[in-house]
Amino acid sequence: MLELVYEEIEEKMGKTLEVFKNDLKKVRTGRASLALLDGIVVDYYGTPTPLNQLASLSVPESRLIVIQPWDATAIKDVEKAILQANIDLTPSNDGKVIRLSIPPLTEDRRKEIAKRVNQMAEEHKVAMRNIRRDANETLKQMKKDGDISEDESFAGKDKVQKVTDGYIERIDEVFKAKEKEILEL
């Protein structure tokens, strides 16, 4: 019975950590990364199509992303989708390929981005704490229903707290690494 509670919080906290890592991939750091283009959907002949299914994406230099649509007629649609994606990059189009030049970030912009990443980390920590609260409520209800003893309830809450602390520590580690990446010139 308790194992189900532990498995559930491990699963939920693991997913929360993965979501945080995926969210961080979309944060600009001054270096070109194809992750910036994740989630961009192009209206291709009336069908919403992910950009990576319409074009060849590459990073030939550290500050340049090159997008080469397989269908040259879709280049305007791709350009429009990039502009609508609000990734703070302006595409330049030569008729065959689209180039996204990543400008170097100013010190103020770096600090602003680091602050935003910190907020994201805090939001995910709150999500972890909510998962912990739900697990503790479940344990309390199980004790009340007589499914577990008081000792098992305390031991369960202790284990839930340790798991929560571990995941919050992982979020902090991921955040620190991303912050370092953002702030380095």
How would you summarize this macromolecular structure in one to three sentences?
The chain is an alpha+beta fold. 58% of the residues lie in helices and 15% in strands. The protein contains four helices and six strands; from the N terminus they run αββββαββαα.
Overview of this protein structure:
The chain has helices spanning about 1-25, 75-85, 105-145, 150-185, and strands spanning about 40-45, 45-50, 55-60, 65-70, 90-95, 100. It has 2 domains: about 1-25 and about 105-185, Topoisomerase I, Chain A, domain 4 (Orthogonal Bundle), CATH 1.10.132.20; about 35-100, Gyrase A, domain 2. It starts with a helix and ends with a helix. It is an alpha+beta fold. A hairpin with a 2-residue loop joins β1 (about 40-45) and β2. The chain has a 4-stranded antiparallel sheet with strand order 3-4-6-5, covered by helices on one side. Helices cover about 60% and strands about 15% of the residues. It has 4 helices and 6 strands, in the order αββββαββαα.
List the helices and strands and how they pair.
Elements: H1 2-25, E1 41-44, E2 47-50, E3 55-61, E4 64-69, H2 75-84, E5 91-93, E6 98-101, H3 107-145, H4 150-183
Antiparallel strand pairs: 1-2, 3-4, 4-6, 5-6
Helix pairs in contact: 1-3, 1-4, 3-4
GO molecular function, one term: ribosomal large subunit binding
Protein name: Ribosome-recycling factor
Pfam family, one: RRF
